[in-house]
Amino acid sequence: MNIKPLPMRDVFLEKIWNKMSLDSLIFFVSADFGSPVLDKIRKDFPDRFINVGIAEQNLINITAGLAIEGYKVFAYAIAPFITMRCFEQIRVSLALLSEVRPMNVSLIGVGAGYSYVVSGPTHQCYEDITIMRALPNFQVLSPADHITTSSLFDSCVETNGLKYLRLDAQVQPVLYPLKPPVITDGFHLHEKGEKVCFIATGFMVHTAFKLAEEVNKSGFKVGVIDIFDLTNFSNEKLKEVLEFYSGVVSMEEGFSGRGGLDSMLFEFIAKSKLNLKTLSIGVEPGYSFELGSREELHEKVGIGIQSAFKKIQPFVYAIMNEIME
Amino acid sequence: MQEITTKELNYLRQKALWVWKETLAIHRRAPETRLASSLSVIEIFVALYYGGGLRFNALNPLDEDRDRCIISKGHGSICMYPILADLGFFSLDELNNVCKTGSFLGGIPDPVIPGYETVNGSLGHGLGVATGIALALKTKKNDRSVFVVTGDGELHEGANWEAIMFASHHKLDNLNLIVDNNSISMLDHTDNIISHSNLVDRLTSFGWSCVEVDGHDIAEVQQEILEQKNTTNGKPKAIIAKTLKGHGVPGLENASLSHIMNPKTELIDQLLENLNDSLLGGR
C-alpha cells in the first residue's frame, strides 16, 4: 500500500483538532510555535488554545495548573526549549507534583535530533532523551513516522500521566503502511535477521534500514528494531526478542554514552542478563556550528551511513567470526 | 463592604498570637525549620484562613468548591502547620512530629500535607502554577478564587514575571497574589541584592490592581483580601504586605541574615513564657 508520508506534527495537530471537538477537557498550549494546522485549533477552540509567548517556563506552569484542574493538556514548543529551558518547572510541577495530583499532560517537542538542519545547535536537540528519561513518571516517546505518531496521540489522550513526545520536524518515510505498530509493546521488530540487531529510535530507524542494507551486502542479514517508547516498552517482549541475538547496536540522533537510548538499552541488557555484545551509534559528544545537509552533519558526528558503517562493520564481523570459529 | 467588628478583630489577633506561639514552639522542637520567614507571614495566613476570605473544606481539601490557595513561599510557611491543624485538616498532635521520621510535616512543606496544593520547596513556582489554575477555573466557568502567597525574594525568579504578564493579558481577575514583602532574602536585604524598588508601581504597570498594606495589621490585611476578592475588574490583583522578617523575636526581627539564624532555646522559652495566656485562642 502506498501511503504518502506526512509531517508528524501536522498529523498530530490534525488529530488534536478532531479530538478537541469531542472532548471538552483537551487544552492546547503553545510557546509561540505553530503551523498552518494549528491555526484551525486557534480559530475553532479559542477558549482552549493559548499561546503563552516565548516563555517556556510559563508554558509548563500554566500546563501544570490546567492539568491539576482536570484538563488534558498538550504543550507544544521546539524540542530543546520545551525540555531544557524549563526543566525545573517540569521536574517540580509535573514529575514531582504528579505523585500526589493526577494529571494528563503531553509535552510535544518538535525538532528531534538534527531535524532543524540549518538552525544550528540551539535548535537541534541531542540531549532530550537523556534528561527526560531521568524523570520518574514521564513516558518518553520517539516515533519514526507519522503513522506511529498518530497512534501515540491516541494513547496520550486516553492514558493519564506525563508524556514527552519528540517529533521530527521533517517528513519521514512511512514505516507502517499496513497497520500501526502495537503501541503497548513500545517497539517493533521489522527485520529479524540473525546474530546482530540494530535498535534505533526516531530518524535513526531510517538510517538503521540503510545500514542494514549495507551490511547485508556482505552476506549477513541483521535485524532492525524501531523503539518508539523509551521508558514503558514491554520488558518481557524485548527480552524475548533480544535473546535471539549475539550483538546489539543502538542508534540515536543524540549524544553517545550520555544517558540516551544506548545507556537505557545496555542497562536493560545487563539487568535482563542477556549475553549480548553492544555498540553505540550516537552523536560524538560536542557541539558544532558547521552547516550542511542533515546527512552531511550526521557524517561529521559519526551517525551518517558511512561513518556509522565504519564502526558497525568490525563489530558485525567480529561477532560473525566468533560464531564461525 | 462591612467593616471588621471589634469582636472579629480580637478573634483574628488571638489566632495570630496563638499561631506565632505555636510556630516558635515547632521551631524549638525542630530547629531545621526556617523560623524568620514563617513569622513575617502569620497575619496574612490568619487573615486568609480565619478572616472569611478563603473558602476551604478541611475534610475534603481538594473540594471542587474551594478557593485554591497556593503557598509559594515554601520554607517560610511553617506557621501554616498550626493553622491547618487548628482548622481540622489534620490532628493537632501532628505538630509534635515536625521533621520526625514518618511525619508528613517536613522542614519544607510538601503537597502530601492536607491543605497544600502544589510543590513549593523550590521558590518561584507558585505564581505560575496558580495562574494556570486561574485560567482553568475561568475556562471551566468555576467562580472560585485563586490565592497565591509569595515572598518578595522569590520574585527575583523570572518565571514569576512571565506569569505576571500572562495573568493581566488574560484578564485573570480571579487571581489574587499576596506578597509577604519582608524585604529580606537568604543572605541580605533584597534592596542590596536586586532592589524591587516599588512593587506596587511595577505590578500596576504590568496591568495588575495592586495595593500596599501593613502586613502585621491584621484588620487591614483581612479587609483588603475581602475587597480584592470581591472586585471583578478584569485585572489580576495583588496585595504587597509590608512585613518584618522574624517578627516579634528580638535579634531576629529584620536582621539581614535572619533566614539562616536560629534563636537560642532560652530566648524562645522566655518569649513563650511571657506571653499573656488570656490572649491565646485555639487550644
Structure description:
The complex is a heterodimer of chains A (325) and B (283). Chain A is of the alpha/beta class and 325 residues long. Chain A has two domains: 8-167, Thiamin diphosphate (ThDP)-binding fold, Pyr/PP domains (Rossmann fold); 187-324, Rossmann fold. Chain A has helices at residues 8-22, 36-44, 56-68, 79-85, 87-96, 128-133, 146-158, 204-216, 235-242, 261-271, 294-301, 305-324, and strands at residues 26-30, 49-51, 72-78, 104-110, 138-141, 161-167, 187-191, 196-200, 223-227, 247-255, 277-283. In chain A, the strands form two sheets. A six-stranded parallel sheet of chain A has the order 2-1-3-4-6-5, sandwiched between helices. The longest helix of chain A has 20 residues, at 305-324. The model of chain A has no long low-confidence stretch (mean pLDDT 96). Chain B is α/β, with parallel strands linked by helices and 283 residues long. Chain B has a single domain (6-279), classed as Thiamin diphosphate (ThDP)-binding fold, Pyr/PP domains (Rossmann fold). Chain B contains ten helices and five strands; from the N terminus they run αααβααβαβααβαβα. A five-stranded parallel sheet of chain B has the order 1-2-3-5-4, sandwiched between helices. In chain B, strand 2, helix 6 (158-169) and strand 3 (175-181) form a beta-alpha-beta unit. In chain B, helix 1 crosses helix 3. The longest helix of chain B is centred in the N-terminal third of the chain and has 24 residues, at 6-29. Chain B starts with 5 loop residues before the first helix and ends in a 10-residue tail after the last helix. The relative contact order of chain B is 0.18.
